[in-house]
Amino acid sequence: MLDRNQLAKIKETAFENNIPIMVDATAEYLQEMIRKNKVHHVLEIGSAVGYSAIMMCEEEDVTVTTIEKDEGRYLEAVRNVEKMHLQERIHLLHEDALEVELNELYDLIFIDAAKAQNKKFFERFSKNLKPNGVIVTDNMKFHGLVDQKLNEIESKNLRQMIRKIHDYISFLQNHPDYVTEFLDIGDGLAVSHRK
Ligand code: SAH
Ligand code: MG
Question: Are 161 and 139 contacting, i.e. CB atoms less than 8 angstroms apart?
Fold first, then answer.
């Protein structure tokens, strides 16, 4: 069992510092799918301060490898993982996920980093997925903005970002090797199974 008091503190500090950690519904969905699918090895792209990696360790036999490129966040993730006594089960990598080479295989790959790069992450880490593995991508609704009309969005950068998410949705829908379900959980999840 995860130490609830410690977890609440980590969550509160993340909120205070505007770290975009996953909402409860997303954490609960992942915990349930980890249990049901008997997931042992997880790869996460985008650790932030380690909150989601910690949440995915609710089942005793799970280990998580998680990548974070921001040094400050990585260092805070190291401290948080120590506070939870999960150093043996959470491997934090201070790397750019667009450059790091991993050779292990994982049952679950959770993509939760720079949203405009989702397709690159998906393509890069597909080779690290076990045959019956699942790739989950977070923030498919991008705070509800993905459903909004593009011409109603003022910021050019934001429009660009939303176009990228639409491109990623079509990429997943048309992928020859994966079947993807889009779930209205939290900020929107894409769940991709190998065919
Ligand atoms: N999974 C976390 C939230 C992650 S926020 C949680 O739910 O608790 C997204 C993180 O991805 C940010 O901290 C950002 O620094 C990191 N990130 C963005 N691009 C990245 C890259 N190319 N490689 C590694 N980390 C990246
Ligand atoms: Mg997220």
Answer: no
Q: What is the pTM of this model?
A: 0.97
Rounded to whole angstroms, the Cα distance separating 155 from 142 reads 14
CATH number at residue 60: 3.40.50.150
Give the pLDDT confidence of 10-34 residue by residue, as tens digits: 999 999 999 999 999 999 999 999 9
| Gap between the Cα atoms of 129 and 183, Å rounded | 21
Ligand 1, pocket residues at CB < 6 Å: 20-22, 46, 48, 51-52, 67-70, 73, 96-98, 112-114
Range of the domain at 12: 4-194
Helix (H) or strand (E) holding 43: strand 41-45
Structural domain count of the chain: 1
- Structure-block tokens of residue 183: 């779930």
Task: State both tokens at 158.
Answer: 């934001």
Residues 6+ apart with CB under 8 A from 70: none
Q: Which residue has the tokens 């994982």?
A: 106
